[in-house]
C-alpha cells in the first residue's frame, strides 16, 4: 500500500472540517477523491500533504507515518502536490519553476518537455505570462520534477478551456500507462471514471463510499455527487 | 543581450573608465568619490541579495557593514602599535594584511548573520524589520560604549592596510582593488541567482508555503541567503573603513541600514547591478547637491518618493526595462 489514510480528522482553528476520512492508494493506482463542494476534498489533501494539521487519525505513506511531518518532508518522501488554482511561482521563468524543485529520478526536464511540448517553447518566459492551461501544465510538470511516488492533483482541470482539459487528461493517461500512482480530485465525472480505478466519496468531512469506479452506479452518483 | 544587461555593462565599464580619466588628470578626489560609489554599491548589492531576491527586508544590515568596518579599524589599531589583535579565545597577532582582515570580517559577519537570521527569520513583515533593527542597534550601542576603540569618537586608521601586489595607499590602485571585488561579487551573485538555489530563494519570497509543498524547506534557503548577503555587506564595510581611514559607530547605526535600503530601492529591487546605480546616484547627490545645500536629503526624499510611485523597478527599471520584479 502506497498511501493509507485511516480515520483522518482535521480542523481549521476551532472548526472541525474532517470527521474521519479513510482513503488508500496502491502502487501504480489512480484513485479519485470525489464529493460535492465543501465536503472536505481539498482539506483532506492538504492534511495528507502536511499543509493542514492532522488532529487525529493515521496517515501512512510507503509504510511510515507522515501525519505530523511538515509539508517539505512529506514532499521529500514522495508526495507531489499540484495545488488547486495552478500555483506557479509567478516571477520565475518556466525553466526555473521546473528546475528549482527537481530531484533525481526518471522524470527529467526533457521528459516533461515531451509530456507538455508547450513548456519547452515557453522555457524562458515568466510563469505569470502563461495562459491558465499552460500554468496548469507547468504546475503538473513541477510536481513531476520532484519525482513523486504519488502525484496528487487538486482540481487540475477546473476553469480551463475544453481543448486544454483534453490535453491534460491525455497527459494523465500517459502517466497512468507509465504506472504513476495518482490521487486526484476533479469534478468532471466522465473523465474521472475513464481514468481512475477506484473512487472514494466524501460527505460532510467523512468518507462514505469507496469502491471501483465501475460500481459507481447512476443511483450512487445522484445520491453523493448530485449528477 | 537584454536592455538591462546593456545598461549594466555601460555602468560597469563607465566606472573604471571614469576612474582612469581621473587618474591621468590627477583628480584624486574624483577617484575617491568613484571608490565610494563602488564600495557603497557593493554593500547595496549585498543587501539586495537578501532583500531583492529573498524578500527579506532587513533594516539591520548596518550591523554587518559596521562589523566589517570595525574589524578593519581594530586590526589597524593593533597593527599600528604591534599589540595583539585578540586575546580570547586564542591569541591572535595583529595584521595589516587585508586578506587576513577580510577573512576575519567575513567569518564574524557570517556567524553574526547566522545568529541574527536564525532568530529573526522566524518572523516576517514588520516584525522581521524590527528584530533586525534591534540587533543592529545593540551593536551600535555596544560600539559607542567601548572606550578602547574610540567609543563615540570612532577610530582612525593611520595607515591603509596592505594587499599583496597592490599599492593600496594610491587612490587609483585602491579603486581597482575595490572594483575587482565588486566584479567578483557580482559574478558570484549572478551564479547564485541563476542556479537552483536562486530559484528556490525567489520561490521562498513569492510563496514559502508553496515552496514547502514541493519539497524545499524555505527557512534554510533564506538563512543561507541572509548569511551570504551579510558577508558581502561586511566586506563592503571593511573596504569603506579603508577608504575613509576612519571607523565610527555611525557605520552601525540605523541611518546606515536605511542608506543601504535606499541604494536598493533607488537602483532597482532584485536587479543585479541596480544597487550600484542607486549608490552612484546617492553619492552624486550627496556630493554635488550636498555642496549646494545642507538639506540635500530633502531632495533625495523627493527622488525616492518619485521612484517608488512612478518607477517600479527603480532607476534600472526605468532605463533597463521591466522584468520579473515589476
Question: Could you characterize what this model shows?
Answer:
The complex is a heterodimer of chains A (227) and B (326). Chain A has one domain: 3-Layer(aba) Sandwich (Rossmann fold). Helices cover 35% and strands 28% of the residues of chain A. Chain A has helices at 41-48, 71-77, 94-100, 109-115, 117-121, 132-145, 162-177, 189-195, 218-225, and strands spanning 3-12, 15-25, 30-34, 54-61, 64-65, 79-82, 150-154, 181-185, 198-203, 206-212. A 6-stranded mixed β-sheet of chain A has the order 6-7-8-3-9-10, with helices on both faces. Chain A has a 4-stranded antiparallel β-sheet with strand order 2-1-4-5, with helices on one face. In chain A, a hairpin with a 2-residue loop joins strand 1 and strand 2 (15-25). The radius of gyration of chain A is 17 Å and the shape is globular. By secondary structure, chain B is an all-alpha fold. Chain B has 13 helices and 4 strands. In chain B, a hairpin with a 5-residue loop joins strand 1 and strand 2. In chain B, the strands form 2 sheets. Chain B has a two-stranded antiparallel sheet.
Oligomeric state, counting identical vs distinct chains: heterodimer
Supply the CATH class of chain A.
Alpha Beta
Backbone structural class of chain A: alpha/beta
Q: How many independent structural domains of chain A?
A: 1
How many angstroms separate the termini of chain B? 19 Å
Placed side by side, the strands forming the largest sheet of chain A appear as 6-7-8-3-9-10
Fraction of residues in helix of chain B: over 70%
Number of helices, counting only DSSP H or I runs of 4 residues or more of chain B: 13
Calculate the terminal CA-CA distance of chain A, rounded to whole Å: 31 Å
Proportion in β-strands of chain A: 25-35%
Provide the CATH superfamily of chain A: P-loop containing nucleotide triphosphate hydrolases
Domain count of chain B: the total is: 1
Number of strands of chain A: 10
Provide mean pLDDT of chain A, rounded.
91
Unreliable parts of chain A? none
- Residues in β-strands, percent of chain B: under 5%
Global shape of chain B: globular
Q: What's the overall average pLDDT of chain B, rounded?
A: 92
Biggest sheet descriptor of chain A:
6 strands, mixed
Please count the beta strands of chain B (DSSP E, at least 2 residues each).
Answer: 4
Largest protein interface, residues of each chain: A-B, 28 and 20 residues
